[in-house]
Amino acid sequence: MSQQTFCDGVTRRDFLRVGALAGIGLSLSDWFALSCAGAITETKGKSAIFVRLGGGPSHMDTFDLKPDAPSTHRGEFNEIETNVPGIRICEHLPKLARCADKFAILRGVSHTLAAHELGSLYMNTGNRPIASLHFPSYGAVVAKEFGGTPHLPPFVTIPSQGYSATGYLGLEHGPFELNTSPQFGRPLEIRGLTLRKDVTLADVDRRENLLKRYDTAFGDFAHEDKLLSGMNQFGQKAYAMLRSDKARQAFDLTKESDSIVSLFGKDQFSASCLLAARLVESGVRFVTVQLSGFDTHSDNFNTLKNRLLPTLDAGLAGLFSTLATKAMLDSTSVFVTGEFGRTPKINPRAGRDHYPRAMFCLLAGGGIQGGQVVGESDAKGEGPKDRAITPDDVAATFYKTLGIDPTKEYLTPSGRPVMIVRYGKPIGELLG
């Protein structure tokens, strides 16, 4: 995973460790210190889950099969019917086929950036990357617009972001990274929420009393010094989160009912999807979940059939069904995407290579009209048939479902006004 390095050689990850509360395993004060500047904006009160399919999944072998294409293109998989008449997807996604009414499929999404990093930046911000400006991710924008609850951050990544998320908005709108993946039946140890075995809440309380005595001893000096007062202020927030039953339970999958757990698979991606739903239910505004491994330059069909597609199927279907069961789907926008598609023509290694000119995305919740396909690729899956859908259009639609105006302007640190999404327009069919 790439790490951003500051001018003094300190990585972003190390920077976030600098203010850790020594001796008791806490580190959330750092995150709160960076997040304090986010302005709270009036919104529709919605949350979002962003599912990143790292590596670039093949559209031809998932949600945009071409059974009538030449054998050099069509691949080994067959189509199956879904619970929506006329919509057909890959046979190795049977659970998603049974809940296709809950999400919309975008076909013929197209761009021109075939490198992983550039494609990821484009699909994770809705703005084509340029050298002179780093655009913020969806999560950073939502964190800025919505803010967080008293005991939970607004933006959480499971397990980590993997790239600079905040762009010109600044680190205060960055994600709280778990840096670990949840597993069913095992406690999730999160830095800042989990104490060492030899530390109790009484130890934390004693530390808080020391901080209060420090404030009394140093008086106005401690409050006038921004660093010292900041450490105390945001340490208090970390302390409050540690003591919050609501915060701890939000991250605890063992608190979920058996009926909900049964909707998922047993793997870490399913556990991550369930955790994302729990976090949103508890008040987190934006959660990013990642499933990697789709860079299938060789052995594409075995990898998809035996590992990736069953994992994706169980996790996503469980997520959609859980949100619907808990009456959260209408208020939670879900966006599923990779950085690009893969070549329609199969290479000599039984794989498919990078291909941004045609790909798929899934959108659900937040007012999205599910049970439909928007857009179409041509007969060989080589590009849009008639109408190209751009990442900018998908981003504008996603923001619209969250009550965020994609044409709203922010100011960069240099005072330059920049729209959240510079060129995209919401896709009308999706919004009803």
Protein topology:
Elements: H1 12-15, H2 28-35, E1 47-54, H3 71-74, E2 79-81, E3 88-90, H4 94-97, E4 103-109, H5 116-125, H6 138-146, E5 155-158, E6 176-177, H7 201-218, H8 220-224, H9 226-243, H10 245-250, H11 258-261, H12 268-282, E7 286-292, H13 300-325, E8 332-337, E9 341-342, E10 354-355, E11 359-364, E12 372-374, H14 391-401, E13 409-411, E14 417-419, H15 428-431
Parallel strand pairs: 1-7, 1-8, 4-12, 5-6, 5-7
Antiparallel strand pairs: 2-3, 4-11, 8-11, 9-10, 13-14
Helix pairs in contact: 2-9, 7-9, 12-13
Explained architecture:
The protein is α/β, with parallel strands linked by helices and 432 residues long. It folds into two domains: 1-36 and 195-244, no CATH class; 43-193 and 251-431, Alkaline Phosphatase, subunit A (3-Layer(aba) Sandwich), CATH 3.40.720. 34% of the residues lie in helices and 14% in strands. It has 15 helices and 14 strands. The protein has helices spanning 12-15, 28-35, 71-74, 94-97, 116-125, 138-146, 201-218, 220-224, 226-243, 245-250, 258-261, 268-282, 300-325, 391-401, 428-431; strands at 47-54, 79-81, 88-90, 103-109, 155-158, 176-177, 286-292, 332-337, 341-342, 354-355, 359-364, 372-374, 409-411, 417-419. Strands 6-5-7-1-8-11-4-12 form an eight-stranded mixed beta sheet, sandwiched between helices. The protein has a two-stranded antiparallel sheet with strand order 2-3. The protein has a two-stranded antiparallel sheet with strand order 9-10. A hairpin with a 6-residue loop joins strand 2 and strand 3 (88-90).
